[in-house]
Hints:
Order of helices and strands: EHEHEHEHEHEHHHE
Shape: globular
Oligomer: single chain
Strand order of the largest sheet: 3-2-1-4-5-6-7
Structural class: alpha/beta
Mean pLDDT: 95
Radius of gyration: 17 Å
Amino acid sequence: MDLGLNDRVAVATGAGRGIGRGIAEVLLGEGCRVAIVDRDATGLEACRAELANRFGSGRILAVAADLTDPESVRHLSERIGETWGRLDALAANAAALLPAEPFDNETYRRYMDHNFLIAVNTVNGLLPLLERDGGGAIVITGSIAGKESVGAPPAYAAAKAAIHMYAKTLSDLLAAKAIRVNAIAPGNVYFADGNWARKRAADPDGIDAMIAAKVPLGRFGTPEDIGNAVAFLLSDRAAFITGACVPIDGGQLRS
Length: 255
């Protein structure tokens, strides 16, 4: 299916590796111009070089930014505006899985900063660009941990649940401006140097048994699986979808 994304301008945050990189790769493959954003400048440059080798450098803008800082988001908006003059699609994916003590207040604050407020900062800072040409689409990355208890740290689960409700209520507010807002809820996504790669390296038999028992499709998700769904939601093929939270989990959620 042609998603009609050719020459659209998109942003993928947390794009230095993992899900964010998978989103960027799919969007570039669909013909988008993509601003890839990550706080790790070294990892981001390595990602930019690899993507440029595959897709050419002319459609990629790499911006190192700490998106928990509104000033960094303002700088990102300026770079996109100076480079391409508009924004059509935002994949607000940047987040962090931090060391957690379940009932420590500071842990909850850090998780909210790096998993919820980071999305709010990003959306608020880039909305003027989305509004400039009369609309666009936003997809915010949540988690199945925000929809159901799956053993994630409570602070992480709470922050992701906040993402889901934020996307839903924001979709109501922005519909009149022709801006669609959806969330995604990825399940267990495997990529090199990721959380699941580390867990599986430590206990391959146990992790494989857990996936077989809990995921009906019997496998981990991939960054490309997530990127494909995000690209669809950002495209005009999803023109009547807003306010949704789409699980991408191999069937793991039970409700």
